[in-house]
Amino acid sequence: xxxxxxxxxxxxxxxxxxxxxxxxxxxxxxxxxxxxxxxxxxxxxxxxxxxxxxx
Length: 55
Prior knowledge:
single chain; mainly alpha; 2 strands; flat
């Protein structure tokens, strides 16, 4: 997530933690629905998430 937020200049740890805390249940539900692990965004077929997703 930090790499993605850097693209829009919002990569401060307090902001990231606040969003994750506020959206915890929605994030967990999304992960359950799609069978995703907590670190699924680290690498996509050998590519960094920031190379796959552009904001």
